[in-house]
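Example: Ligase-associated DNA damage response DEXH box helicase.
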Amino acid sequence: MDLLPPVLEQWFAARDWTPRAHQRAMLAAARRGDHALLVAPTGAGKTLAGFLPTLADLIDRPTDRLHTLYVSPLKALAVDVRRNLLTPIEEMALPIRVETRTGDTPSDRKARQRVKPPHILLTTPESLSLLLSYPDAALMFADLQTVIVDEVHAFATQKRGDLLSLSMARLQTINPGLRRVALSATVADIDAYRAWLAPDGDIDTVAAVLGEAGAEPNVTILIPQGRVPWSGHSGKYAASQVMAEIAAHQTTLVFCNTRGLAELIFQSLWSANDANLPIAIHHGSLSIEARRKVESAMADGKLRALVATASLDLGVDWGNVDCVIQMGAPKGSSRLLQRIGRANHRLDQSSEAILIPGNRFEYLEARAALDAVEAGERDADDFRAGSLDVLAQHIMGLACAGPFREEAMLAEIQSATPYSALTPQAFAAVLYFIEGGGYALRAYDRFKRLTRDPDGTWRVSHPRFIQQHRLNAGIIVDQPALAVRFANGRKLGTVEEGFAAQLTPGDSFFFSGMALEVVKMDTSDLIVRATSKQARIPSWGGTRMAMSTRLADRVRTFLASPDQWHRFPPDVREWLDMQKLRSVLPQPGQLLIETFPHEGRHYLLCYSFEGWNAHQSLGMLLTRRMESQGLMPLGFVANDYALAIYGMKPVIDPQSLFSADILDHEFIDWVEQSSLLKRAFRDVAVISGLIERQHPGKRKTGRQVTFSTDLIYDVLRKYQPDHLLLKAAWADARARMTDVGRLGDLIDRAATTMLHVTLDRVSPLAVPVLILIGREHVAQSAADDALLIEAEALVAQAMRPD
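Written out as structure tokens, the predicted fold is:
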């Protein structure tokens, strides 16, 4: 307590609180002037620990300048933290002003904040980057003492982390005495995050502060009425049981892995909600007004349950939440731990969570996730070099603030750890790109955003490019979307253009928890009205979460460890026993390939557990290779655990299909001929500033943006194939969209560990993925009955012991 000013001491004492050890350690680090990374479980008072040094300093040394900048990955989290921070400030009657600045902040308040900033400003990486694009940024941040990065694990390894790292380098240039702080509950590699946080990557300047362990969470797997399903990944079969849990608790958060599943689960729960309990839905495609309304209702304790996606994964805490339910497999122990932490939010009480596996493989994954949480195992963090499209956006933003010298700018950029290895040649290539778009585009004035003066100083070529940058800056590239509106103009949110294109007037779909009928559609709006008609679930093209490699390793171990099976439900044990009898169960590290005939076709099953994205890519590559070998493939389906390819001829030698050169030949051909690279190019072209999303007074439609980027893509492919953006698009396509690293590991493993088993009929392990084939081919109206008949027949064949 001796580190605290008297008024803070009294505030703690009035609540009969004593600062926790990690909170005192954060105060001590601030007194020493050290940067700090705090890793502590949810409910340990991380946010208060991050802000305690700020409050103490503002009490001891009042100022009228901006003192602390808080950066969060979510707008909702910034709003929530402001609400929580204002409580102690008001109770102590401190003259400390706290404000938020996000994309939702009114423009007049944004303008005022630059002239008269608050003492504490809560913002996002994108809004901070925009602030740095103004000439008065150096004045605004001249006395900034601390930057607090919350939920650092959520974006440090991604492009938003690249942007924030570059922004912190600029803030450090403005005030070299600036102190950096990061907070997280789920960090696996502490030193990697210390290096990311530190100026020049010097981890010795960053104190690692570890919070005390809290009460062990109480996590269970719900065993459904009857049996664990053979297929599916939503868990909607358990809707009535989930509603019973909601009724038994005060407030429940129901997490789904995608927005489409959230809409599906909400409808399933609503149908089973016989007691008419107040429940709602929350995801990133809903309008700001809808999300804020739901968040306020949760904060006021008016809801019994909220169905949500990752939009509420991070730090948005309501004290009355006493249960978290995960629909479908969690896909990673860190994500599960993060979601579990949304319940209770008290260190000394166990958080209660329930997992609802969608199928038998997901049961194994859920059990693996529970074991990982109990063992304190976190998902690996994949740090990589900073993206060049992000760098181009950042440089253009700083140029908007004022002219710069090349040497000084490079040194500042290299002090950001993701760009520490950036060479002068690569930096010059980025400048050359911003200067004129590259030599293939130099004839067009609209790409000439920077000019180099004779003395070597770089400046923005024309004021219109400054306005263009501020209108279009940002790292999150939304897919082309249409606004969903009622006829009175009220906006409900957005759906992706691809889904909207499938709709015609009279069609209905679920959105924002309602059944909506399409009235009409134009280039930017989908006009709807409420309906009672049967409706379909919208789809979104976001990347599917793949099971983490560490969970995959645990599932493989389960398969090879019959002594563990007593922990599983009887039907899961029976499934594995029959697989062991009829075929084999792969050993850890082994790649099991099964081939068998079924209903006039020949099947190849590959059990690699590398995730849906990698399996989708592998399916494309293997079918191309099978075509060249005359095996007449017809198609493939995949889940996180296995890939099934079916065709007219049997595969006798699967080893030849998995040879290492598949990544050099078929992979490159496939990516270049598919839309994959074009989609990646669209994203990097927008992020780098080459293509506008918005023009003054007008926002481009998704089709217009795509048309523009496709034209430029074709020009560059023909005339400048080594263009910086094509390289960046390739890096994105390989790393983000295809999980090529896991695909490479799979191919490597095939060379030495492949076990090929030839069977006379379908195996038990193959059933969950083969059922997906029927799901894709049966008409919607007859789907349920037809799929049930097909699945029962498949199961009967697979589970027959003879």
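The chain has four domains: 6-210, 218-375, 481-530, 583-672+739-799.
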